[in-house]
Structure formats: C-alpha cells, structure tokens
Specification:
Shape of chain A: globular
Radius of gyration of chain A: 17 Å
CATH architecture of chain A: Alpha-Beta Complex
CATH topology of chain A: putative 2-phosphosulfolactate phosphatase
Number of domains of chain A: 1
Strand order of the largest sheet of chain A: 9-1-8-2-7-10-11
Largest sheet of chain A: 7 strands, mixed
Distance between the termini of chain A: 22 Å
Structural class of chain A: alpha/beta
CATH class of chain A: Alpha Beta
Oligomer: homodimer
Order of helices and strands of chain A: EHEHEHEEHEHEHEHEHHHHEE
Strand content of chain A: 15-25%
CATH superfamily of chain A: ComB-like
Largest interface: A-B, 24 and 24 residues
Number of strands of chain A: 11
Helix content of chain A: 25-40%
Chain lengths: 243, 243
C-alpha cells in the first residue's frame, strides 16, 4: 500500500484518482455536514459543483423528496433550504430526503475524485470509522484535502495526518510507503496540537467562520467520533456504507 | 509582516505575487544551480519556461557570451551546454557568461513570481543570506516552493520552513503573522530532521536523482551556506544582490 496526499484538489487529475481508494477531507465543513446529514436519516447526499446544477436537481418535480443546500463564502446560498453548518442538518430537516449539496471546496474535491475505485468522506467526527476502513485495504490510498479557496488548509491537512498516522500504526511498516506529502501530513498531526478544536481555531478557515458567527461549528466539527458513520460516494451519490 | 507560502507554483496567480517580497525555492536543483553559477562568475542567469525560448535567446548571434542550460526529467536537454547539476557550473564554464536556464519546476516558479516587488532565490546553500535579507523587511513575504512535477516536494517545503523559522526567531512575534501553510512549513522544519542531506535523500525527488546518478548533487545541495550569495530576479534576469 502506498499512501499519497493532495493538499488541495487543485492539480488533481482523473488519472491521479483512477483505481485508487480515496478519502476526501473537508473538515470545515462539507465532510462534517455529509456525515451529520446521513447519520440523521438523509437518504443520500448528492454533491454538485454549481448552484445551477443544484437548482436543476431540486426542481419543483422533486420538491417533496429533495432539499437543496450549500454555501458560497461560508454563507447559505439565497433560496436554498440549508447552508453548510452541520448543526442545521437535524433529523427534522433531513430525514428521508435527498440532500443536494454544493460548497466552495468540498464538493469540487469529491467530484474530481470520482474515478477512484472507492471514495470515502472523512473528517474528525468520523475519523476512527474511516481509519479502520482503510487500515486493511490492499490498494493504494489517495487522501484528498479539499483545502480552502484552492489553497492549503491546516485543518484538512492535520486531519489527513491523523488518518495516515492511524493507518500506519495498525499496519506492518514494510507493507506501507508514503509520499512526501503524506509524510509531512503525519508530522503535522504529531507535532501541531492534540486538540482538534484548537487546530480549527488556529486555522485561517476557522477564524473566518468565527467572524461569520459560526464558532459553535468549530466545536461540532472538532469533536472526534461524534458522528461515527462511513459515507461512501458512488455513482454520484453519497450514502452510508453498510457491510 | 505577514508570511505566506505556496507549496508549489500551481495556482499562484499574478495577483498573489504582486507587490510582495518573494523568495523562490527550488532546492533540487534550480535555486542551487543559480547560486553556484553566479558565485562562480556568471554575468547573469535568465530563467525561461521553454526549450524553444532558451534556444532563441542563445542563438548564434550571442554564442560567445551565452550558454544554454537546463533539464527535462532531470537530464540535460539534448544540444544544451549544461544540465541542471550545480557541479557543472564551474568558473571555467560560466565565468562572464549569460546563463539561459530552463528547468522543469524552478524556472516556471520564478517566471510566475515576476509581479513581486522583490524576488530572491533561496535554497540550503544560501539560506542564511536569504534569511538575513528577509528578516527586516516591512512588506509581506511570499515563499514560493517550486515543488516537483506540479506537486508538493518535501525538500522545498522543509527549506521554506527553515527560512520562515529563521525570520521569526529574529523578529518581534507581534509584528509577524503566518498563514496556515507557513505555519506547517515551520513545523516540518522543526520536526523532520536537522540534517538537510537526510531530507534530500528521503524526498521522492532526491530518490529520483539518485536513480539518475546524481547522488553527489544531494550532498552539494544539502550543504548549508556553501554558496552564500543573494540572487535577485529583476526584469527577467537574476544577478547577485549588491548592497
């Protein structure tokens, strides 16, 4: 098993993702929102790149079964049902619904990863479920950090390091190689802080969310294993993996 | 002073670089080669993106005063005078010459940084000269890692961390802020290893150069302050900064 990591989806080509097991990380907040929606009974999450696509998929024809959700600049898109705060995705709002989701960073990372053989969604709230699922695979693993505004983000890279470190601790060292990026992600996890909420507060993205009034989201998104589901992206839809 | 860092030149736009002080890092090997060429008496280094541009600039008209140099895939371009090993850039080959240089990663990073207010070339062999020059500036600093094949590279990111750490140690903490990327670069420098040659040997790029027969270059490129010059890129040419 070789473990590689992209610090953002920028530069990620179809051929980089093809036939690899992939975990897409967007801690703030798409991955966390997806876990929460599915855990609270959403039928599926459908990630799309544009507001236009989201509107088309949630046209009046499907209004009873679909909600259209997402953000631009951290804030709910005008006319959408929900924004991108995981705290909005309660059973009352999502149970039985198809959630069409478009966000600035995370949904693009997911769509770009679609040539992978298996695509998981990871973040702090489901980190153990993801790590355990990946620890015993034989294929190569690609960890795709969503990043922020096409740039490196501390929180996704730190979470990548947490997952990579967890995988390496359970595997035979000789069976597992890591790329430069994966190695540095692990160093970042081991040396930055052992408190994910502190990581989120230090991160530029976290500071921006605090300014927008979403500080409570950092505590939600930073709680390890709060929402221990394993979302899998397959043929355009994200659902909970069932063994 | 705010310190930011790009892990590769991919995604670096003119407006990101504009009016910032920039240091471009390509440890393996363009930055090291540029330092060595200038230290050994080259009149200037002219970085260009393509083999075609290099050929045009070194046409017969200028054959007496110009040498055309660079690599693709780590190996000297057919018909060029020199490759990209700093050990080739001896006084006997470069003294008094204009060196037209095209490499896979470093020259593109330089050309993309050209809207900066001041552009330095950094690596291990001149790290103290660069760090001292940057420690007292008042403008914002952008550290541009060349990376490798448009991806993150350990050696450039570690060197970025070494420079950022050096700057922060000499400045008042309240006057200096760092981005997520710059912060993680510093963590990488502090925690990876204190031996730059080990960093180069661990890096995927270093391993590739060893396979190509350039192991000796890693010892050259990893020697701190071996070539203590301060190359400045201005109006298309790199020359040694003179106070």
């Amino acid at each position: 098993m070789h473990i590689d990591c992209f610090v953002t989806h920028v530069g990620l080509r179809e051929r980089d993702a093809r036939d690899k097991v992939i975990v897409v990380i967007d801690v703030l907040r798409a991955s966390t929102t997806i876990c929460t929606a599915l855990s609270n009974g959403a039928k599926e999450v459908i990630p799309v790149n544009s507001i236009e696509q989201a509107m088309q998929l949630s046209s009046d024809l499907f209004a009873d079964t679909t909600i259209v959700c997402g953000e631009r600049g951290g804030v709910k898109v005008r006319g959408f049902d929900l924004g991108n705060s995981p705290r909005e995705y309660t059973p009352g709002t999502v149970k039985g619904k198809s959630v069409v989701l478009t966000t600035t960073n995370g949904t693009e990372a997911l769509v770009k990863s679609r040539t992978g053989s298996q695509i998981l969604v990871g973040c702090f709230v489901n980190v153990s479920a993801v790590t355990e699922a990946l620890a015993n695979i034989n294929e190569d693993l690609l960890v795709v950090c969503a990043g922020r505004e096409q740039r490196f983000s501390l929180e996704d890279f730190y979470c990548a390091g947490m997952i990579i470190n967890g995988i390496r601790e359970t595997r035979n060292a000789e069976d597992t190689t890591v790329s430069d990026t994966a190695s540095v992600a692990e160093i970042t996890f081991r040396n930055y802080s052992d408190d994910p909420v502190k990581v989120l507060k230090d991160a530029a993205h976290g500071q921006s969310l605090i300014e927008l009034g979403f500080e409570e989201d950092l505590h939600f998104c930073g709680e390890i294993n709060r929402v221990p589901v394993l979302p899998v992206y397959h043929e355009g839809r994200i659902t909970i993996h069932t063994a």
